[in-house]
Design brief:
25% helix, alpha+beta
Length: 253
């Protein structure tokens, strides 16, 4: 989906541009990360980035595979060792973080929400969105969500990255946004026709942007939101709720 950039910010990057090189990097990183079951970032060596993940050493040993593999009449099943898996995961994490850092530098971001509360101002952005799966009228997207936090009255803040990519399920019956820390999934079940509470504000804005290319924060009242949701086919009886679980299967493979 070709998403237009929405707004700009005086304190941090606005939202413009997207290079094919960076898109290929983040797509590869996420794809390999999904295969390995790991999409957590590393710390930055170039920009001031705060991640909720632990730091993984870059001094990982590189493993090679010998070409002298004996030929056997029966299939040979090879299971990567724990060390080999860690090396591959570290490389994926590094690629993901480098791509996100480049997106920040190049201002390749789209603004979702911007507000101040409790002594700090927060701006939420998204970037690198791609369609992962589509079936039965539903679409599952992967995207990267970043937050820029600035203490009230200051001009310089810090970037906070999610520990893994964010999933958005575009569905009339079960609209949702899913965050993950690598070990647990937080599912925000949404009600697009109703004004969201504070904890659901970013997820609601992300859903409207990814699924309908609409900046919902521009709607001045609930009536406009309800009318738009009803026109798109959503029920006003959908409930906002949040659940946590250690596994995720949004669509049958």
């Amino acid at each position: 989906m070709d998403l237009e950039s929405q707004q700009s910010s005086p304190n941090s990057p606005a939202c413009q541009g997207n290079t094919s090189k960076i898109q290929r990097i983040i797509t590869l990183a996420i794809a390999v990360g999904i295969t390995l079951g790991c999409t957590q970032p590393l710390r930055s060596a170039q920009t001031e980035v705060v991640s909720t993940d632990s730091v993984v050493s870059n001094d990982s040993e590189v493993f090679t595979v010998s070409e002298d593999v004996p030929i056997s009449p029966t299939p040979i099943t090879s299971v990567p060792s724990h060390s080999e898996t860690q090396v591959a995961q570290s490389e994926v994490e590094m690629m993901r973080l480098e791509a996100l850092e480049t997106a920040i530098i190049d201002e390749n971001l789209t603004l979702l929400t911007s507000y101040c509360r409790m002594g700090q101002c927060l701006e939420t952005y998204y970037t690198f969105t791609y369609l992962k799966q589509e079936a039965d009228g539903e679409r599952l997207y992967d995207t990267e969500v970043l937050t820029y936090k600035v203490p009230l009255g200051e001009t310089v803040g810090e970037w906070i990255l999610q520990e893994a990519s964010t999933k958005v399920l575009c569905s009339i019956q079960r609209p949702m946004v899913v965050f993950s820390d690598g070990n647990n999934y937080t599912i925000n079940n949404l009600s697009p026709g109703n004004q969201p509470g504070g904890v659901f504000m970013e997820s609601d804005a992300l859903y409207w942007a990814i699924c309908h290319n609409i900046n919902i924060t521009e709607y001045s009242n609930n009536q406009s939101r309800r009318d738009q949701a009803l026109e798109l086919g959503y029920s006003l009886d959908l409930n906002l709720s949040q659940t946590n679980q250690p596994f995720l299967n949004l669509m049958d493979n």
